[in-house]
Batch of 2 targets.
Target 1
Amino acid sequence: MSDSSWLTEFPQLERRDLIDIRKSLDGAYRSFSREYGETIENFFDPLLSFLIWFEKLLISSPWWLIIAVIIGIVYAASRSWKLSLGVLASLLAIGYFGMWEDTMRTLSIITVCTLLSIGIGIPIGILISRSNKAQAVVNPILDIMQTMPAFVYLIPVVMLLGIGKIPGVIAVIIYAIPPVIRLTNLGIRLVNVETLEAATAYGATSTQRLFGVQLPLALPTIMAGINQTIMMALSMVVVASMIGVKGLGQPVLKSITNQYFTLGLLNGLAIVALAIIFDRVSQTYAKRSQKHLEGHNNG
Amino acid sequence: MDKVHETPFIEVSGLYQIFGNTPKKIMPLVNAGKSKDDILAETGHTVGLKDINLKIHRGEIFVIMGLSGSGKSTLIRHFNRLIDPTEGQIKVEGEDIMKFPLKELTEFRRHKMSMVFQNFGLMPHRNVIDNVSYGLSVQGTDKTERYKSATQWLETVGLAGYEEQYPAQLSGGQQQRVGLARALCTNAEILLMDEAFSALDPLIRSEMQDQLVQLQNELQKTIIFITHDLDEALRIGDRIAILKDGELIQIGSPVDILLNPADDYVEAFVKDVNRARAVPVKTIMQQTVPLVTKQGLQEALNQLAAHDYAFYQSDNGFEGILLKETLEKALIEQPSGNIQSEHILATATVKPDTPLEFALPKALLSHYALPVLNKEGKHVGELRQEDLASTLDNSV
């Protein structure tokens, strides 16, 4: 009974084999990135130039104009003076404490990430709502995206594209896109069966059903997904700053390494302020657009 | 109803619906006559509908009645193929709709059939007028035209002025009126109604039933109506099919079902029905008493022939009863005279849709059969006491 050590010790791969596996995988990926890195980088070029243009636009425009535009959007979406005044106050405070430029950088990257997440996430959500097989494939991937530590998938992205805005955007999207996909899927699947049957019975095509019934009725749920996506994107700001994304994340990173408590706190609060603005505005907008769903409850 | 058409308007033949993973493979077992329970136990498949054969005529209200789980909602969803059968066909005007490709099916759904749902199936994000005109908007009709049509139908169902409201702001009865207006708005010939009134309060329900019958008199659609409520079936149905555990047990007119139940199951149902309330006068109405329409006494007597009495209807409408005895006496006095008001015996009258319950006291107080008058006050037949008695006698 010489070979019974597996009872006391976990039978594991030889250390040498393990190293070989790691080496060959790393090598393969490295040669892949050497081979295709540039092509992929070129593919993202239009996005990069848009990011740079948008960031410049936000920074170089006069601050009062930006504030006016933001307040305009907030009021148009929420129709609430109270919320608009709150947004105004927090933006003024951010500027007063010298964080205007970083805030604009973060705002630009978050806006782009959110738009991309919505643009990619909603079609995927629609797809998996229509096919249980697609859902069975996509759901575990979403689980991985949400639970895999961000640093882990940052490694291949950085290996492929280097440090900068694009890897940052990709990292943020990977982390932030699952809610919008999941909730689009859920929202469509929860649409009342009879209502959908009614559309079919009156001869609606599947496109007419999607745009006329399923999406409008799933909208509150989809909006909740978008809201979650924005919040998760904002929470990635600091992590993204580690791979060279400028903005409110970098001062926070700096204050961690140098133990600048106040600097960290102020920039952290600015992130919180942005989050609250995004959250309240998108939620009041969603609520306002669904007003007709509240009845008199008269039977 | 008109049975002029030799080929039925809608014909369901050999329709089977089996729920499960491999329904086609179960068909041999079903054909071999295995029971529903055995098949479920052996294969895990549920036999939803078993060998359904139906003929529905143009212009009738055909009611499919069954308790929950009998497969009635499944059955109605086959008519517009919201559900496809495992086997069998449904022919509409001789064409098998199961063979329609998607495009043709869509056209069929748009123009030929419309549907009213138990829980209304309205679109909460569209206001009333957009809901009503939904069928037309799917067809691509332009906005002014479809709104015009929708406004008109809303008026018909009694909801004028509610155009801008959202479904959540309406009561259940109002929502179902919207559902009805939506179904009528596409001008489809066939109306599918899936427990359309079951979710409503009893009072609203009977109001809606009346409205449906009234609308049907004007529109002459072909209505397939699903219900679990026998009283409702008897009240609105021209013919009734009774479904139990996915099988048809009896098809017949309301009175047929009431008076000649096919088996114990139907009989158990029928036993609790208040016949006096369920059977309207028209179902046992006869036309044996002659109707005098001429003014001359001699002509009147000729029309009376061997009968003791007749009903008299002049150009002004129904007048009353003429007794042979009175007429003969009058003829002796004035051989070429006309019928005068003193010759006419006043009588109570009933309407064709009046339930027997309300005709009963009048019938008890009258020595003669009760004349049945339509809405215009014109004679259509009579209600005889002996028919009334035999119909109300539950013991037969």
Note: The mean pLDDT of chain A is 90.
Target 2
Amino acid sequence: MSFHVVKREACPLWKKACFYLLAVLAALTLGGLLLLAMGVNPLAYYSRMFTMGMVGNKIAYKAFENYLKVFVPLALTSVALSLAFKMRFWNIGGEGQFIMGAIAAATVALKLGSSLPNAVTLILMCLAAMLAAGLYGVFVAALKVKFGTNETLMTLMLNYVALYILAFLGDRKADWNFFLQAESVRPVFQSFADVAAFPKIMLGKFGLNLCVLLTFAVGAVIFVYLKYTKQGYEISVVGDSAGTAHYAGMKVNTIVLRTVFLSACLIGLAAAFKVGTAGVLSTAITDDVGWTGIIVAWLSQLNTAVIFVVSALISMLHYGSVAAAASFSRVDSSFANMLQGVILFLVLTADFFIRFRIVRTQKGGKDNGNG
Amino acid sequence: MPEQYAIEMRGITKTFGSVVANNNINLNLRQGEILALLGENGSGKTTLMNMLSGIYAPDAGQILVDGQPVTISSPEDSKRLGIGMVHQHFKLVDVFSAADNIWMGREKPGFALKRQRYDEIEQMSKKFGFDIDPKKKVRNMAVSEKQTLEIIKVLYYGAKVIILDEPTAVLTVQEIEKLFSVLRRMKEAGHSIIIITHKLNEVMDISDRVAILRKGEYITTVNTAETNEQELTEWMVGRKIDLNIDRPVVEKTRPLLEIRDLTIKNDEGATAIDKVSFYIRGGEILGVAGIAGCGQKELCEAIAGLRPVQSGLMIHKGDNIVGLPPKAILEKGISMSFIPEDRLGMGLAPSLSITDNMILKNYADARGLFVDRKSGRADALRVIEELEVVTPSTETPVRRLSGGNVQKVLLGREIKAGPNVIVTAYPVRGLDINSSYAIYDILNQQKKDGVGILFVGEDLDVMLALCDKIMVLCHGRVMGVVHAHKTSKEELGLMMTGALDLTDKHEDKPAGIARDTNITAEHLESAREEEN
């Protein structure tokens, strides 16, 4: 008996959803086995993780506010990356662009925050972060357009350039270095939470950060932009076949530069949101959203609406594992990273089963008829 | 005792998703014969042969080699059984020499590459009467040389059964003759050969028997000597079909597009088109014949504004279009459609829907920020209806359509824009008889409407029947423009290889320059100035 792989014609939506759900369940089961091996009750752990420690917690609303702080940068970065990916521009530089945006936003907050009203500071922070990140991204696009360099390598390497600039700023005590606390002997980042913080809309005790609303608004705009506008159409054509785009009279280079700039700008905006809620820089400011965002964008198959759902789930994984670590000291928060990897792997496997099915090879056949 | 066949396929079935590519096919190949496998596109010829060469495994059925049942689950198995296939798209490493391309597939290539491999391969190709330089790099080879190399490779591995998938599609008439004499010699040496083709005259010329497939079904096998082209077509298509291509006579206008002393470079910077002059009138089809890669692509791209012109003039209705951006050339009513080998590379965005492909050239004309998909959908519906495109809906991605329908979508969009000059390269590339004739009808209709058509083609028989005049290119130079009803395939073949130059045939009229030209002294003056 032998088997072989056959292509599926079409897969109905409910079936697709089932496959993905199965993949996630399988990933959780694998994670559960690992937890058992460590002597932890998986059900207890998972229930702690997925409720993010909010059940039986007097300040559950605080937990949800903190969860949204994880969600906002990830969702916005993923949306931004999907713009570039749709054009088949492999922007692996989310981390670097995020850091550049964060440094620019912090500069505005530290230099101008005390002399300007909060709202003006925040707007300037967003604009500065978008510009800095946008330029950092479009630099690579310009090199690609002009010299045909490989954007994957360039954006990847520039991540480390940005990271070490940030590390340098956080380490170097000097008169010029306004990023650090002047009064402290050890190098500590200067907080600006009192002069630049995004306002909250109070719903009872729960404070809904303005960033959350803005993120959803940006998501909606990008959804429409990609789907219905001329520029969105151009992105799909260039992504599908640059030769065809050129043939249709599109200015391919302009489109590439414009789209990458926009993509990086939005990552800068995510950084401004992050900095404007954290109120201080740190060398771990990105929370790895530049990397995780790539996974989210692909898991969502570059669909803007799905990106929000997937970001919400992945954020739950990350934030929940931190919350669960409080009661299960044996399992640290890297468990979430492992689980995320297994989920990605199994969702890709599910993808295979959505596209193909496996059938048994039949033997037989009639006598030869020709000749 | 039943006859022992070299290959016997029994009840072979192969499905891809819900598409049945081969349904219960029975085929046999006698020892030492040439069997032609005939069928339209999508009839399952290549799929069937890929199961012999180990690329696909059958869902059901049995394969016998020399009377023994076998399982072929990889190309290695197939090689061991003495079956060799020369694919339509050559499987060669461009940067390797001829000898190394053969050497690398050996079971035991040895740790070090030895010089003697050149001698060994040279001797072996001499034995079969091939003329090939074993040290020559594949990337420097002409198409026919590459094909020869593929055949030598197959023979080197000791194949007794040789399968050739549309070997003549890329060759000139003279090269086809040469190939056929090689095949006959191989047959005499005891090899059994299967040749896939859909050119009937070749089937009649070379084969002993013909097996016919239609839409994945096995139809019949006949002795070539006992049949004729008309009968074969009916089996292949399933109904009577008129094999004549119309050439309506239409009153011609003054030249619409005039090309004068045009020189273009290719991507590598070598001269692709060398001082070429010709003109197209409204109401005529000018064919462009030439061996693949003789500057056809560069010429098309230059006319569409996609490739810079080194020197020369392109005058459209009296205006020079050299240096204009693609958009401006489109707006003048010059349409270019080029069907590359992969059939999707230029002109269409394969992952996008038919609607989205319809609006490709005019999406920017919609007012405001948004794309106008409503009129795009209406256009898509019209093209689907008028050209009988088979598709589930207007929102189906173009790459899901079959080849013929893809090409109809492309041509449909071009015609919808109401061009006055159509440049079309290989519009029937890889299409079956029905779809090809549909495309010829579309072009003839355009011609009757007074459109000037430049038809870059491959099949000389078709060009002789369809075109009014034929221009022959050889290495980027014009070898002459001939009237299609006054020339022959042999003459064209000689011109394509550069053996015959008819540019100076008419002493009173310089080649490629119309008597009633729109090109003025002013144009020529400005062109000269630009060069200096």
Note: Chain B has three domains: 7-237, 244-333+420-532, 341-418.
